[in-house]
Each structure stands twice: as C-alpha cells, then as structure tokens.
Amino acid sequence: MNKVFIACLIALYLCTGLFSGGAWAQRGKQPSEFGQNTAQLKYMEDLCAKARKGDADAQYKLACCYDMGKGVRKDETAAALLYLEAAKQGHAEAQYSIGHCYSMGIGVPKNKKEAGKWIKQAAEQGSGGAQLRLAFDYDFGQDGFPVDEKEAVKWYKKAADQGYKSAKVRLRELGVKTR
What's the whole-model pTM score? Predict the structure, then answer.
C-alpha cells in the first residue's frame, strides 16, 4: 500500500472515526461535540484525497496538520513521511521541513547529511526560512556544512532580502552593510 494512502487513512480515522462508523454516529452526537465540525471534516477528507493523488501542496498541508496536531492527533512520523513525499516533488517548504526533521531527529532518525541536502534544496528554491537556516549552518558548521563565512553571508543576504530581521542583525554583526 502507498505510504501516503496509509497516512491519509490514519488521519481520517483519527478525526472522523472512519473505521468505527464515525465516533459521533455511534454515540448519537454531532462532529462539533468532539471538537470537529463538518466543514473541518470535509476539509480533511478533501486534503487526504488530494494527498493520495500525489498533490504535493496537499501532502505538505496534511504533514503540517500531523506536525502540529491540528485536526488529527500529533504524529511526527506521519508528518515526516508526508513532508518527504512532498519534498521529493520539489515543494520548497516541505523540503525545508523534512530537512529540519532530519536535523533534529523528529519523526525520522537524525541524519545531518539528509538534513543539509533538503535544507539546501529548499534555500535554492527561494524558501526564506531555509535560506536563513542554511546561513546559520554555514556560519556555525551545522547539518554537515563546513564553517564558511562567505557562503553564510550569501545566504544571510538572501534571507534578509525576504525580510528576515535576524539575518540583517547577523550581517551587521559580521560587519556586512545591509540596505
């Protein structure tokens, strides 16, 4: 079975009680009495259907739901799995998120090489958060990257151009003039 399909089944089970006929149906209650309303349930069902079909944005959004426990029980492994599926399709924010997961060992085994690979791909695609993270990685030699001030400055500038104040602060600390 497809891993995304399994993750979607779990999501539907957790928020609708799909396999038990629906938690509220068995107890004679409405979804809103269990913290879900029918619009939220419909949204999750639609999101799962899109994710199963390979929609990278839907996979990313569903991963965020698992990551934060919004609409489903928090499940870091399911989140990482879905981030990875979306990342493989080139979704920049999913690439950054799975890179973070690998860096910290959240839902996947800690793997600095994989972390660096995904964070760099996301940064190259223009993810401001990933650009800032990559700058820190080069600045302090993290996630498998060597300390390289020139590369750090390059990525801090890109993050600063996207409005990241901490990038501007660090550039000033490094003696680099910013706009």
Answer: 0.79
